[in-house]
Amino acid sequence: MVVIQAETYGKHLLTQIFTHVWYGDWDRYEDMINQIPEELARGLPFHPFYERKQTSFWYDNYFLVPGDYFIPPYVSSYRSKTKEDQHQAKKDLLCLIGAFDKVGFYYPLEQEEFPDHIGSITAFIAALLLEEINAYENSDEKLVKSLKSVKKEVYENYFQGCLEHISTFHLKKVEDPFFKKFLPYYMESIKEIIK
Fold first, then answer.
1. pTM of the model
2. Out of 3.40.50.1360, 1.10.3480.10, 3.30.160.390, 3.10.20.30, which CATH number does the structure's domain 2-194 have?
């Protein structure tokens, strides 16, 4: 049990780092990196390429400014534009908001961001992991199982298709070494974190 709890804590920490990258919050990213041992930070394949000014510039080009390099950071962007798909996207967004509300997760509002932003969903997964750590501490196996189920549902129903689309169509746009390493690492890691 202690090993699983420690592993969950590690997943939580990594997911927090991911959240800060997705929001382009470099102050908080640096704070998180400074809280972990140096050898672990070096072990993150993207971190050795972090140069705040350059990374921030490319973040803006990839995730904020529409143009040649733009990669939409919103899950709903990866739906087709048919009326049916847009209706389903709205329903999915309401379900996602409902899942956030169930656990009192309001981080997207604090960030003034939409709930279907990849950073918002990543932050939600981090919040679920923190609840999971607390459930382990309280020996609440039922709650642990429930939280794992919610993580899996959010990933499979709202997130997986978007990440597959980014992997298939957008990774070839990425030139900056930080994001060239970050995106594939994030996509593989988030699958493992969901397990």
1. 0.86
2. 1.10.3480.10
